[in-house]
Amino acid sequence: MRHSFSYEIRNHSGALQSLKHELEDTFFAQRRDPAVRSTVLLVADELVSNLLKYGFKKGSEQYSRLNITLDGDWLEIELRDNGRCFNPLIHAKPETLSGSLSERQVGGLGVYLVLEIMDETRYEWIEPWNCLTLRKRIGERTDDCET
C-alpha cells in the first residue's frame, strides 16, 4: 500500500516543531512502523534543522517542500528548498570520525549519519532549488542466493 505526505516548511523558528506535529497527526497515524518513524524523524531533525539554521537567509521568505512516500518496502524522502546552493553528498563526511566527542569539531555528523543509513541518495541543483532524494528499504530483505 502506498502512503504519501507533503508539507511546506516555511522559514521561521517553529517550522521544525510544526512539521513534527503534522507528521504525528497524519503520516505516522496512517503507518505505525517504528523503522519508518525513526528514519523520518532523523531526517527531519538533521536536514530540516540544518536548512533552517544555515540554508535560509534570516528573515527571508524562503521555503522548502518535504515529500515522503512509502511504497511497498521503499521509503522515499524528497527535500526541495530554495535556500543557499548546498550539495550534502559532497560535504557529508566529517573530517574525522575518530577521537572523543570533546575533541571533535561541532557539526557535520548528523547529515553524514542520515546519508549513511540510506540505500540510495541523489542531489540535483535545479535553479533555484536544492533537490535531495533519499531512499531506504524498510522491512525485511530477502537474499536470492542459497547458502
Describe this structure in words.
This protein has 147 residues and is of the alpha+beta class. A hairpin with a 2-residue loop joins strand 2 and strand 3 (74-81). It is built from five helices and five strands, in the order E-H-H-H-E-E-H-H-E-E. The protein starts with a strand and ends in a 10-residue tail after the last strand. The chain is globular. Helix 1 (15-25) packs antiparallel against helix 3 (34-55) and helix 3 (34-55) runs antiparallel to helix 5 (109-117). It has one domain (2-137): Heat Shock Protein 90, CATH 3.30.565. Helix content is 34%, strand content 29%.
Q: Any idea what the radius of gyration is? A: 16 Å
User: How confident overall, as mean pLDDT?
Assistant: 87
The top-level CATH class is Alpha Beta
Order of helices and strands: EHHHEEHHEE
Low-confidence stretches: none
CATH topology: Heat Shock Protein 90
Number of helices: 5
Strand content: 25-35%
- Please indicate the count of domains: 1
Shape: globular
Structural class: alpha+beta
Largest sheet properties:
5 strands, antiparallel
What would CATH call the homologous superfamily? Histidine kinase-like ATPase, C-terminal domain
**Biggest sheet, spatial arrangement of strands:** 1-2-3-5-4
How would you concisely characterize the structure shown here?
The chain is α+β, with helices and mostly antiparallel strands and 147 residues long.
Topology:
Blueprint: E1 2-10, H1 15-25, H2 27-30, H3 34-55, E2 63-71, E3 74-81, H4 88-91, H5 109-117, E4 120-126, E5 129-137
Antiparallel strand pairs: 1-2, 2-3, 3-5, 4-5
